[in-house]
Fold this protein.
Amino acid sequence: MNLDEELCRFCKSNKVLIKQFNRPPKGETNFGFLPYNRSLWQCTGCQHITNKHNFNIDTNFYKKTYQRTTYKEKTRSRFTDLMSLPREQSDNRQRVNFIDNFWNDTQPDKEKSCLDVGSGLGVFPAVLKELNWDCVAIEPDPEACEIIREQVGIEVLSEDLIECHKIGEFNLISFNKVLEHIQNPKEMLLQSTLNLKSGGLIYIELPDGETALEKSGPDREEFFVEHFDAYSRKSLKFLLNSVKFKILKIDQVCEPSGKFTLRAFAMPL
């Protein structure tokens, strides 16, 4: 690592090596990286965790990896399985209840309009729709967009938020387990302000790397290869402060799936 890489991008403290990987940990998708070399580093100041590797983790790579004849069938089946989970077993139902309760308590007079960035299977916007949210999904994978339109019946934009300039304005923009997959989350957050109504909020969920490392160690899902970062409460605050967002609420939870998660509401100053 060069000098800049040795310092945390959020608090500029030194980083220490947590673990060197030469094979995928149990449960991680095998993308066929050979040789498999990556390392996990933690900031000594804010406890932020970073994956270091030279793998090609981008949209085109994912699309090539997942293009299989049974892709759509498996995705539809997965969507159905997740939607059928009871509330106590569903990450999405508990997350949407958290969002809806916060909104009803703090924004009771505002329309429930949401832009969901990186919608994946579409389960999250589907559950929002059940609670009468007007949701638009934005997802760069056209196959996933087709399935969301079919399964959820909402407007879907097959684009990247950074490159999309005519979306409209919303009272809420959600980044549900998205920012850890990109190398420049600041740019994404700043772009989102162009699509927020006056007084609008953003909702963020991220892997809680600090808690996951403390309670279980470095082989967990929070640190899998597709995550460039796993956050701490402190590093999430640094991220939001760096783009001049006012933090309204930060929670740390262990979801029904067992994931350690940070979730936050914030708004531009």
Q: What stands out?
A: Residues 59-63 have pLDDT under 50 and may be disordered.
